[in-house]
Amino acid sequence: MRDIGLLPHQHAFVADEKSPVVVLKGGFRAGKTVAAVVKALHMAERSYPLPVVVMEPTYRMVERVFIETARRMFDQWEIPFEWLKASAELVAWPDSARPLRMLCVSAERPETIMGITAGGGLVDEWELCGEEAVVAVRSRLTPLQDGAAPQLALVGTPEGFGCGYRWTEEAPLPGLRLISARTADNRFVGASYAEAMRTVLSEAEAREKLEGIRTAPTGVVYSRFRRDAHCRPPPRELGPFRMQVWADFNVDPMVWALAWVGADSAYVAREVIGRHTDTMAQAEWCMRLCAEELGMREDDARRMGIELICDASGSARHTSSTYSDVAICTRAGFRVKHPASNPLVEDRVASVQRVLAEGRLFLAPARASYLVRCLETQPYDSAGRPSKDPSLGLDHGADVVGYGVFWSWPAWKPRANQTSNVGHKWHVVHGARRP
Are 268 and 255 in contact, with CB atoms under 8 Å apart? Predict the structure, then answer.
């Protein structure tokens, strides 16, 4: 194999022709997809005239990750190629006597490779594809013309403790070779990238997604929270603020928060916790508190159309009457806003982690003591998710803060080969009732 400037871990992955299964495990932007493209081309050369099967978790990733990377790299290396979209086939040197074929499939439809005979298989982000899809690729491999065994090449970032853990660590497959790489091992990625990622990742997540070391989430969810840094009034220089209400419609308790929100920061002035109550009573109580906080009459506060941020399900469900929770709050005088669909829990957590890390979220320790306790102590459960253990009762407060922060300053938890930062559609707005 000629030298094309690969990083050491990329070269080790591509050059291995003997291991029945070779795995490149690495952190985000460690250069895994470039290595996958070179490996697929190298496998296609060895497998000729048989094709190589290349799998991504979704067809969107086939086109936007693998094919786009291949276009860039092949142009750089001056390799003629053709992308046959109708048959999802990438062909290098298509007009030569020895065209190299890579059949591209998604794990969403592994049945599309049934009947195919391939001389090699490569699965990118294989732990996101699922065990059955990876097994389907392996089942299509056949010995090469020279009698050599076909190879299965797997590339990805560690993802929990599913088949990736079982195949590579708990009970490694026979003949498996595991090659590891960190984000920092890619000299083309600046240190600022890792620093930025650490603001939205917990320590355990950073270890897994930047170091490539499989790690179970432990400790508290909001590891960036510091009582001495976040339990105080916001700095005056952060600019003017407007009042917002952040709401969680779950009952016993029904937890809301009154927050002063600026262009880039928020101050939770007080929590509103209703027990054995309903949305109508909670909304009326909260409006009185808003008027008190604003120093004006309740009727004047209603006319303001104070924003109330909640989760998407509030528009469909009701906790107290035939009206939806959103309709009840609108009738109480609030201008209700919510996303069209709820963000993923990990994205809400990432949003809060980021504003905490950047010193842009503050809470009144005396009047928001429950919310402080939720951010300070909510743990992970045994599955690595924020705990919803009712005996702890820490999820409602954390959810409320997450809804409010995500609405104004959304952050998306970094994901391997993420093709877009557009996570959700928002701005479903319900106008305030005018008395």
Answer: no
